[in-house]
Amino acid sequence: MEHVLTKVALITGVTGQDGAYLAELLLSKGYTVHGIKRRSSSFNTERIEHLYRDIHEADVRFKMHYGDLTDATNLIRIVQEVQPDEIYNLAAQSHVQVSFETPEYTANSDGLGTLRLLEAIRILGLEKKTRFYQASTSELYGKVQETPQKETTPFYPRSPYAAAKLYAYWITVNYREAYGMHASNGILFNHEGPTRGETFVTRKITRAVAAIETGQQSKLYLGNLDAKRDWGHARDYVEGMWRILQQDQADDYVLATGETHEVREFVQLAFEHVGRSIVWEGEGVNEKGIDSRTGTVLVEVDPRYFRPTEVDLLLGDPTKAREKLGWHHRTTFPDLVREMVESDLKRIRETGRA
Ligand code: NDP
Ligand code: GDR
Q1: What is the third-level CATH fold of 201-226+262-311+340-351?
Q2: Mind telling me which CDD domains this protein's record contains (predicted)?
Q3: Model confidence at 211, in pLDDT bands (50, 70, 90)?
Q4: At what angle do helices 234-245 and 17-28 cross, to 10 degrees?
Q5: Which helix (H) or strand (E) holds 134?
Q6: Are 106 and 99 in contact (CB under 8 A)?
Q7: Which stretch of DSSP H or E encloses residue 86?
Q8: What is the pLDDT of residue 319?
Q9: Residues with CB under 6 A from ligand 1
């Protein structure tokens, strides 16, 4: 009888939105999955709790290690212990606005953190065994050079986060070329879902809609309503990450939907799911979103959420991923918004909290 060895994956950032979806996907494919989590004074494992099994049970395929991307010796030890076939580097200080407040830490974790992992593979002589996925981002495109944005579009980062991710992108390419490593970048456009971090704009909106609908909040304060994003569902995008590492040759791919929408449109659709229709009045910082039936102001602009440098328009061209990986997004924009609003409404009704 043929003995099929299961593949071993190591996911950094396993407690984040994408890490949790990816761990679930890889476990469903029979992988043994190791994740790196940070020590925290309160629980930070809510997104992966459903994947946990008691470590004393037989055949436990999901294992956690304490670690941090700023700690090289710890990363080397974990990679040595795990001997992964695939590393997915998803850990990052991932909030663009926060990166303006913590630029050095962001560079350390998002930029140098990637180098530390690549070096761990090299130091341990795993260049031919371990495939590497780097969570690159459409934020690399920053100031618009061309649309739609594709693999050959020049980068122009507009935040400390994007500048750190630019280093991570190129060091991944460099290790592929210098040492023949199977190291790839997924240049992913925004992807969301019900477990999206609460301070990203989509989740901030859907939580507010649920809180307003249940009488716990009266108004939503937002920043730039004109920004346009290519929003997909995280569940679809982790499938693309996996496909990237299954290719014979390492390469870099854009994953996107090929559609773009203003923040304003997301707000509008989200409120429509609870039967409210928004009319917009005023301009710039004076713009308001008003409930057309009651006349109540539901949305106001607060300049504190403006960024020192903004990314105005993201629209991706996923042709290469479709042709080479057979990947395309499945969840439409209206379905994404609906799923997020419904999930937040359910949570608030069950727990009393948004
Ligand atoms: P999240 O912010 O939800 O998750 C980030 C993860 O990284 C969390 O597990 C977090 O741990 C962990 N982390 C943060 N800093 C460190 C550190 N110093 N050492 C170890 N772990 C750390 O991000 P997403 O899941 O949305 O994104 C995953 C990756 O993809 C990120 O690298 C992000 O920059 C990138 N990306 C995301 C896109 C998106 O639209 N979601 C688009 C393109 C790229 P903790 O839970 O303890 O905070
Ligand atoms: P982004 O996501 O910066 O694209 O980075 P975010 O949801 O934070 O912002 C999207 C756009 O909405 C505008 N905006 C607001 N944003 C936030 N967070 N809060 C507000 O109140 C608000 N009002 C308007 C922003 O100015 C921006 O234009 C995400 C992250 O997941 C990155 O890690 C990832 O690399 C990129 O997506 C692709």
Answers
A1: UDP-galactose 4-epimerase; domain 1 (3.90.25)
A2: GDP_MD_SDR_e
A3: very high
A4: 60
A5: strand 131-137
A6: yes
A7: strand 86-89
A8: 98
A9: 12-13, 15-19, 36, 38, 40, 44, 68-70, 90-94, 109, 135, 137, 188, 190-191, 197
Note if 213 is an active site residue.
Answer: no
Which CATH number among 3.40.50.1820, 3.40.50.720, 2.60.120.10, 3.40.50.2000 corresponds to the domain 8-188?
3.40.50.720
Give Cα 285 to chain centroid, integer Å. 29
**Weakest mean pLDDT among 51-60, 88-97, 214-223:** 51-60
Q: Is the pTM of this model over 0.95?
A: yes
Q: Which of 200, 226, 262, 302 to mutate to test the pocket of ligand 2 (most atoms within 8 A of CB)?
A: 200
Q: How confident is the model at residue 4 (pLDDT cuts 50, 70, 90)?
A: low
Burial of 77 (0-12, 13-18, 19+ CB in 10 A): middle
| Cα–Cα distance for residue pair 307/23, rounded to 1 Å | 33
**CATH 3.40.50.720 domain extents, the chain:** 8-188
- In the predicted structure, residue 111 carries a pLDDT above the cut 90: yes
Q: What is the pLDDT of residue 53?
A: 80
Where along the chain do the CATH 3.90.25.10 domains lie?
A: 201-226+262-311+340-351
Q: What is the ipTM of this complex?
A: 0.99
Above 90 in pLDDT, residue 59?
A: no
Cβ of 69 below 6 Å from ligand 2: no
* E-assigned strand segments in 183-328: 183-188, 191-192, 220-222, 228-229, 232-233, 252-255, 261-262, 278-281, 288-291, 297-301
Chain centroid, CA 54 distance in Å: 28
Could you tell me which of 109, 31, 103, 37 has the C-alpha nearest to residue 66?
37
Whether 179 sits among the annotated catalytic residues: the reply is no
